[in-house]
């Protein structure tokens, strides 16, 4: 009798283990899709080594400062155009197909840059690259959110920003050792590698079930969880969520009037807005100057590489912490400490611009920049991309994600085009204090508005957003 009980207990334990799928296939699919984020990061960072060359006397394609400004800004304009319809289009044709197709404009953009005969070729290339970048930044979080188990969704969701930082570091490294034309070829390899790697990744079970392709969804889920995993419970949960959405079909006006959807959209838009208006691009722009103020003799290119390495390492750590510490904690720490760092930077520039001797304070702004980049990479950088893939139901996820990511890129464009004007009109100190104030407001927003999504199912997240308590009755 005792032996039979042991056998029964072992059998129950075996069944219990099947409730957790294999993790490696989910990691591999996430890495494959986020190679497009490396392409995204490469596009962002390309202007750092490219514009100094194009503006130099040795350039084969000389450009003016105004043309250089537009080369930097057109990426954001293209990204806005790409982000807005991307989610909706992926609702029709699938996350995988649409995301894989984005390799085409990525590759075309680098072909145009390599063979550019005038600055207009580069303008078109940057618009194409921006379109692909905006669309991929909308679809990647959706794809990951739909393939990942709740227990590792935070970690995998953090890979979007992690791969962006790897793409930025990749370009910094290439720019330090390669001439302009080889830099462009090196960047052009990334979308090719993405296409090859992503072809073997599965479509998301959520999309397949939404199109009544149950056998394909079962196959995809087995590919993602392993053959030992009992897929039926998860399939039923996804089907129930889709059935509930279909039963409650409503116009977009009605959907956007629902409390859970409105709050989810407010959360996503707020996170994207505060991410870009944190001043991250301004701080990175000034990082080389601040290194000099600190008495550093580092080459500007090497200092950029150091900043890139710090971002990659801390973003990776953040991906590990997202499912342990939680989203809210990381966001609150990030926003609060960034506000302090920007306040210190603003005060340093106030003293410097007033003619005071700041030679003894060189390490203060240097430490502020390093800490700022660390805490941004810990929370404000990766968490918004993770949460935008968690907050929305399937019926609205496509269009809502597009709106949120469109907000992000609109903010990028505004900050990029107005930053120098703010410096010229109000000074360095006021500019950094403004960004610091926005970070402080962001911390308050997160504390009162943003829900914790760590380890929660979509149903649990929606209940919290709508203000309902989950019933314990199964």
TrEMBL record:
Chain ranges passing through the membrane: 27-48, 68-90, 97-113, 119-144, 156-175, 181-201, 264-286, 301-322, 329-349, 361-386, 398-418, 430-450
A GO MF label: sugar transmembrane transporter activity
CDD domains, alphabetized: MFS_GLUT6_8_Class3_like
Major facilitator superfamily (MFS) profile domain mapped to chain residues: 29-454
Primary location recorded for the protein, binned into one broad class: membrane
Alphabetical keyword list: Cell membrane, Glycoprotein, Membrane, Transmembrane, Transmembrane helix, Transport
An annotated GO cellular component: plasma membrane
Membrane topology, record value: Multi-pass membrane protein
Location(s), subcellular: Cell membrane
Cross-referenced PANTHER family: FACILITATED TREHALOSE TRANSPORTER TRET1-1-LIKE PROTEIN, PTHR48021
Protein family membership: Belongs to the major facilitator superfamily. Sugar transporter (TC 2.A.1.1) family. Trehalose transporter subfamily.
Protein name: Major facilitator superfamily (MFS) profile domain-containing protein
């Amino acid at each position: 009798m005792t032996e039979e009980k042991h056998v029964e207990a072992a059998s129950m334990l075996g069944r219990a283990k099947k409730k957790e799928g294999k993790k490696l296939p989910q990691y591999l699919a996430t890495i494959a899709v986020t190679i497009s984020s490396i392409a995204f990061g490469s596009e962002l960072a390309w202007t750092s080594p490219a514009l100094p060359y194009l503006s130099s006397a040795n350039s084969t394609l000389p450009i003016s400062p105004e043309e250089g400004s537009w080369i930097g800004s057109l990426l954001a304009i293209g990204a806005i155009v790409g982000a807005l319809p991307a989610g909706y289009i992926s609702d029709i044709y699938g996350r995988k197909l649409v995301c894989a197709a984005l390799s085409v404009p990525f590759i075309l953009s680098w072909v145009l840059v390599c063979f550019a005969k005038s600055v207009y070729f580069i303008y078109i290339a940057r618009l194409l690259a921006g379109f692909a970048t905006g669309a991929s930044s909308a679809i990647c979080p959706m794809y990951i959110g739909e393939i990942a188990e709740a227990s590792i969704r935070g970690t995998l969701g953090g890979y979007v920003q992690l791969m962006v930082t790897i793409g930025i570091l990749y370009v910094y490294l290439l720019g330090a050792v390669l001439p302009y034309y080889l830099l462009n070829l090196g960047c052009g390899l990334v979308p090719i590698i993405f296409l090859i790697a992503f072809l073997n990744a599965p479509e998301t079970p959520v999309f397949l079930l939404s199109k009544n392709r149950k056998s394909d969804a079962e196959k995809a889920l087995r590919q993602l969880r392993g053959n030992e995993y009992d897929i039926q419970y998860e399939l039923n949960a996804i089907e129930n969520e889709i059935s509930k959405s279909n039963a409650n079909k409503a116009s977009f006006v009605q959907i956007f009037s629902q409390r859970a959807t409105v709050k989810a959209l407010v959360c996503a838009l707020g996170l994207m807005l505060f991410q870009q208006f944190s001043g991250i691009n301004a701080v990175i722009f000034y990082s080389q100057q601040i290194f000099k103020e600190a008495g550093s003799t580092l080459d500007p290119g090497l200092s950029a590489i150091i900043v890139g390495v710090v971002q990659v390492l801390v973003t990776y750590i953040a991906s590990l912490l997202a499912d342990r510490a939680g989203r809210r904690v990381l966001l609150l720490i990030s926003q609060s400490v960034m506000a302090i760092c920007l306040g210190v930077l603003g005060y340093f520039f106030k003293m410097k611009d007033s003619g005071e001797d700041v030679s003894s304070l060189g390490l203060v702004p240097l430490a502020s920049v390093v800490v700022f980049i660390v805490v941004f990479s810990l929370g404000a950088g990766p968490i918004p991309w993770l949460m935008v893939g968690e907050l929305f139901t399937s019926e609205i996820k496509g269009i809502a994600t597009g709106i949120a990511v469109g907000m992000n890129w609109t903010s990028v464009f505004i900050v990029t085009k107005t930053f120098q004007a703010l410096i010229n009109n109000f000074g360095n100190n006021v500019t950094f204090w403004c960004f610091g104030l926005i970070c402080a407001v962001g911390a308050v927003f997160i504390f009162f508005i943003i829900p914790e999504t760590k380890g929660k199912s979509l149903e649990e997240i929606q209940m919290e957003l709508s203000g309902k308590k989950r019933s314990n009755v199964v």
